Amino acid sequence: MRALGLLLALAVLALCVMLSIAVGAKSIPLPTVWGALWGSEGSYEHSVIYELRVPRAVLGVFVGAALGLAGALMQALTRNPLAEPGILGVNQGAAAAVVIAIIGLGMTSPDEYVWFAFAGAGITALLVYALGSRGRSGATPVRLALAGTAVAALLQGLIYSVIALDSFTFDRIRFWQVGALAGRDLDVFVKVWPFLVVGLITALLLAPALNAVALGDDLAAALGARISVIRALSALSIMLLCGAATATAGPIWFVGLIVPHVARAIVGPDQRWVLPYSAVFAAILLTCADTLGRVVLPSGELEVGIVTAFIGAPVFIALVRARRMAQV
Prior knowledge:
There is one protein chain. The chain has helices spanning 2-22, 30-36, 44-78, 90-105, 110-132, 141-163, 167-178, 186-205, 207-213, 217-222, 227-249, 255-267, 271-295, 304-321. The model has no long low-confidence stretch (mean pLDDT 82). By secondary structure, the chain is mostly helical.
């Protein structure tokens, strides 16, 4: 039944992608979208599909899958149901690097500072892991969470201090920090997709080991699990997934927080199913949120980061009130 449910979720994702390509300032009939996917006729509608809609849909699927998988991985690793990608300071690290790129090198577009965002996210994740793993007890969930919160607060303070003194940087970082798929082309995705793929594969391979970690460090060690190696590989996967997603679309909140809870409510605590379900559900959520953001306003559109916040907050509250937040 779980495999059938996953196939059904993939079918829903395919439908959401079709709607994402069809809906926009100019609506395109689904038969036209379907025909364009099998070959371009060079028409205006086909140009819109290939140059604007398809890249945006592709980014939505991969960024959503990365955030959902990273959130599930973090909650399993820290055994904290409120953990989400920002807990390791990844978003703040990426934002700090973008600020440096804008101020120091005059970069103005995502194509230019994508590597800075990715490097900032990665370095911050490694710094948090190094700080959280000091001492005899090693990288415990509480120590990682505290280290991540402290580093994130420090970086956020530095970012606010810098952009308050520079109006140009403030305008650029404000647009990037909202979290958006619009205005990003496949050139950004081409730069980070290898890291996304490595992060996705690593996370899925860690699923059986994470089931042992859920039993507690002592019992997991007694069963032969190498806790330090599992945590190091998990941190690496989170760094790759969050770094690539944030560098591509900016910080997007709530996706990595709520989706793993929905997945656990459906398939139970087995990480071998929670991780792939989280990836597919998050891709569906981000694709639908991006599509909804195009039609909710009479003119213009809402960025996907704003839509996910509006969707994620009440869903998360509903899950808590309904006591359906499955144990991590």
